[in-house]
Amino acid sequence: MAAVASYDQLAHQVEALRKENSHLRRELEDNSQHLSKLETETSGMKEVLKQLQSKLEQEAGTLASSGRSDVLHQLKGPNH
Q1: DSSP per-residue letters across 6-63
Q2: Cα-Cα-Cα-Cα dihedral sign, residues 39, 42, 44, 50
Q3: What is the pLDDT of residues 20-40, one digit of tens each?
Q4: Distance CA 4, CA 8 (A)
Q5: Cβ 64 vs Cβ 56: under 8 Å
Q6: What is the pTM for the complete model shown?
């Protein structure tokens, strides 16, 4: 009788572990998809920042070449 009860307990534990495993797999998949989305967004933001930096450098060059170094120094701020 003890062997039957212990088999039933083991069967119940196995089923509980299967459910937990299934839940964790879904959670991992969701997290992986979310991480991929964040990586894509980050990559897009980095590209936008590169473009902005390039545009700012062009503008700085234009200001410097037109003799407007006073404006350039104002834009750089007190920390530079």
Answers
A1: HHHHHHHHHHHHHHHHHHHHHHHHHHHHHHHHHHHHHHHHHHHHHHHHHHHHHHHHHH
A2: negative
A3: 999 999 999 999 999 999 999
A4: 6
A5: no
A6: 0.58
Q: Cα(62)–Cα(78) distance, rounded to whole angstroms?
A: 21
Is residue 68 within 8 Å of residue 61, measured between CB atoms? no
Three-state DSSP state, 77: coil
- Classify burial at 72, counting beta carbons within 10 Å of its beta carbon; exposed 0-12, middle 13-18, buried 19 or more: middle
Pseudo-torsion of CA 27, 29, 33, 35, nearest 10°? 70
- For 4-14, write each residue's pLDDT tens digit: 779 999 999 99
To 5 degrees, how large is the angle CA 19–CA 22–CA 27?
125
Q: Tell how far CA 65 is from the center of its chain.
A: 40
